[in-house]
Amino acid sequence: MGEAPAFVVDDLLQNQDGFDSKSKGCKITTTIGDKTYVIGGENDESTLSLEVQIFDKATGNCATPIVLGAKPSSCKGLSAVSLNDDRILIVKKGSTPDDCIWFLEVDTRFVREQKKIQGTDVVAWSRGARGYAEKPVVISGPSGVGKGTLISMLMKEFPSMFGFSVSHTTRAPRCMEKDGVHYHFTERSVMEKELKDGKFLEHALVHGNLYGTSIEAVEAVTDTGKRCILDIDVQGARSVKASSLEAIFIFICPPSMEELETRLRSRGTETEEQILKRLQNAKKEMEQGQSSGIFDHILYNDNLDECYESLKKLLGLDGAAAATQRSAPQGIDLPADHSVSKMDNKIIINCGTAELKKASKNLIVLDVSSLKGGSSWTDKRA
Ligand SMILES: Nc1ncnc2c1ncn2[C@@H]1O[C@H](COP(=O)(O)OP(=O)(O)OP(=O)(O)O)[C@@H](O)[C@H]1O
Ligand SMILES: Nc1nc2c(ncn2[C@@H]2O[C@H](COP(=O)(O)O)[C@@H](O)[C@H]2O)c(=O)[nH]1
């Protein structure tokens, strides 16, 4: 049992018009079912930190959950509204436009999976963005087929649109590879501990080394409003497909196994033993890639420029579509003095300052569907 909450439980009544959050001192409470989520805590005289406690109305217990995801920075106050009973929308007062909307996932599929792994209460923070935050792109294919080359071309042409999910690996760095940029190079025992702690979206043993995508790596990209690209093997793609991350899955094929071997050898990064192992694994990956039903698209990387054009086309990046998508996601410029409520599928932010009221600019209405948070972690419940 945790500490008693700093508010009177009887106060936590849900009122009739959909407003289900109450502010008590420096904390805000939102009730979903039997649970009341208490968010906030005094940081210093002028700011609040965003701690989370869960009060269970059925048992009368208060617990501090495991909190996943990057925690929002402290703020001058907050408002909260529950969305679909699985996430709480938090609006931070007096924060910058790109930092004022956050989601606390309390019962999404991802959180439920994490609760099972951890055996205790779990919640997860994700930053909200307005506008597009499109589905992540998972790119798989045998070693040496050109995945990294194609991804580099995409990142170079569209730097503000895409962000690379930096994987963890236990393999040794190649001479030009930088820790934290190409991979997070790590010790096996450290990675195994982190896997146990539920920090990874997926992982696999690939060519004799552990590789994995941490939840933080994907969130580091989606938090910036960019579209996340994952370069992972077929086993990893299968795990992501089964997870709550809604993505587009692309498999890249070589024109032939001979050409694949030529590319691997000419890259000059592997020992002879490694090359043979990778070519052996390539045969299995080719079979699985083309027949497993995981992949939405299969591309042939024979001529590099042609393959890149096909990749852009299927990502909607050819011609006019690309120009529209290049625009940055929008933030919301919120004054410190406001209140938040929910009506049907709309979030209504009432900015209470006299000047704004006079100018009839005191209401901001947001369509819930235009808000992306935890960007693509969706609930796949029917
Ligand atoms: N279409 C192509 N034609 C000829 N060479 C290519 C083509 N695409 C990529 N290459 C070359 O093939 C080599 C392997 O490419 P790359 O490193 O991008 O493969 P990869 O799929 O990312 O491999 P890994 O899975 O091992 O990381 C590189 O030297 C790259 O320059
Ligand atoms: N399942 C995962 N596979 C990954 C991840 N990061 C990379 N990879 C795949 O490993 C092989 C080998 O990569 P290399 O850099 O050693 O040549 C390649 O097929 C990658 O797609 C990951 O996080 N998870």
From TrEMBL:
Signal peptide: none
Pfam family, one: Guanylate_kin
Catalysed reactions, as listed in the record: GMP + ATP = GDP + ADP
SMART domains recorded: GuKc
Annotated SUPFAM superfamilies: Galactose oxidase, central domain, P-loop containing nucleoside triphosphate hydrolases
EC annotation from Swiss-Prot or TrEMBL: 2.7.4.8
GO cellular component annotations of the record: cytosol
Domain Guanylate kinase-like: start-end pairs: 134-316
Entry similarity comment: Belongs to the guanylate kinase family.
The name this protein goes by in its record: guanylate kinase
